[in-house]
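Exercise 7. Given the encoded structure of a 216-residue chain, write a plausible sequence.
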């Protein structure tokens, strides 16, 4: 795919997303969720990391942490594993808890997803390859609440590739998260599991923002 074709595809996807968000905003204007669709006027963001085991009874682990341009609030985080208690494989759920350090297991339900939505609010979301990570979560939101997350989104992977191309036009940029962290000298995160990945994504975002500001 040529650069022009790739740009056209991205533009078309962005426009479809904007139209869908506007449709949902009008649809839920008089609902308890109306505030989620309003533009965010503050300075905080939410760094998100997800891990899914697909299948007839998928298991989804999520870590979300609040941040701003200077600080990551590890004490203000939301970490849990979603699974259907009746059909999900117990072994898979336990593996998620061990690998991704999730202490809480929730059933896919309107009430549980409402709790996550209230934590995130209408703050922008950031994350590595965010669109892929949000696919399963948005699907669950649509099933139980009728809409996908309407938040503005920043894909840190795209920021990394764009800034690396600006610095080194002839160097092929890596799409691997660990290599991106090493490239921008992001330190090891003390937090474990998915929370560590969310925090590392936040640090990478902050580093890229500083580099973009310095390079003008």
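Solution.
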């Amino acid at each position: 795919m040529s650069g022009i074709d790739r740009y056209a595809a991205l533009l078309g996807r962005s426009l479809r997303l904007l139209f869908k968000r506007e449709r949902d905003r009008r649809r839920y204007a008089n609902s308890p969720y109306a505030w989620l669709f309003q533009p965010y006027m503050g300075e905080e963001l939410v760094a998100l990391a997800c891990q899914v085991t697909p299948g007839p009874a998928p298991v989804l682990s999520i870590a979300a942490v609040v941040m701003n341009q200077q600080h990551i609030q590890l004490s203000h985080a939301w970490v849990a594993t979603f699974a259907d208690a009746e059909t999900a494989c117990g072994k898979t759920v336990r593996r998620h808890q061990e690998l991704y350090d999730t202490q809480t297991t929730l059933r896919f339900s309107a009430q549980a997803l409402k709790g996550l939505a209230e934590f995130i609010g209408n703050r922008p979301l950031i994350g590595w390859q965010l669109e892929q990570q949000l696919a399963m979560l948005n699907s669950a939101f649509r099933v139980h609440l009728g809409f996908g997350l309407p938040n503005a989104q920043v894909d840190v992977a795209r920021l990394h590739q764009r800034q690396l191309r600006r610095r080194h036009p002839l160097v092929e940029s890596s799409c691997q998260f660990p290599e991106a962290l090493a490239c921008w000298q992001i330190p090891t995160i003390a937090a474990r599991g998915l929370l560590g990945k969310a925090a590392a994504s936040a640090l990478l975002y902050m580093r890229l923002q500083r580099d973009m500001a310095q390079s003008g």
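Remark. Confidence is low (pLDDT under 50) at residues 6-12. Students should compare their own answers with the one above.
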